[in-house]
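Propose amino acids for all 152 sites.
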């Protein structure tokens, strides 16, 4: 699939087949995420790949409309350090760029996904819940989750 076709045909999908995703494809998606543009080239991201069914089920409860996460064979959680010399508010935009690369790389492999935000500046509860489920330290922000799978 060429780049323009990939950009023009990607859609948010919330219904997935229960087909496992090969580690080779997962690695390629993550490699594409790491190649996203980032402000000041800080590359502030960290990714957590969640394949465990119980963890995906728990993450599906983080937002009231995110039940579809439980049915995806995997979920990539996008995180960012909120401390250190490289912290900048523009890092949030860089994380979004990495998320778009994840979605486009997944689409190029015949997979689909849906950006699901966790970080809510008006409500800390979703991030707190996700932090407890994934055992993420306090100095790392959980920005979003992208469930990925073969579309139904």
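Proposal:
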């Amino acid at each position: 699939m060429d780049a323009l076709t990939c950009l023009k045909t990607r859609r948010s999908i919330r219904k997935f087949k229960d087909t496992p995703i090969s580690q080779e494809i997962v690695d390629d998606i993550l490699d594409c995420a790491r190649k996203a543009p980032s402000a000041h080239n800080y590359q502030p991201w960290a990714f957590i790949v969640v394949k465990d069914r119980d963890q995906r089920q728990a993450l599906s409860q983080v937002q009231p409309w995110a039940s579809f996460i439980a049915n995806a064979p995997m979920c990539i959680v996008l995180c960012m350090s909120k401390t250190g010399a490289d912290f900048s508010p523009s890092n949030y935009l860089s994380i979004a760029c990495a998320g778009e690369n994840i979605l486009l790389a997944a689409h190029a492999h015949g997979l689909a996904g849906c950006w699901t935000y966790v970080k809510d500046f008006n409500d800390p509860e979703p991030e707190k819940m996700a932090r407890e489920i994934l055992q993420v330290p306090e100095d790392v922000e959980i920005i979003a989750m992208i469930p990925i799978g073969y579309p139904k």
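The helical segments are 3-9, 23-34, 53-59, 91-108, 125-134. The longest strand covers residues 140-149.
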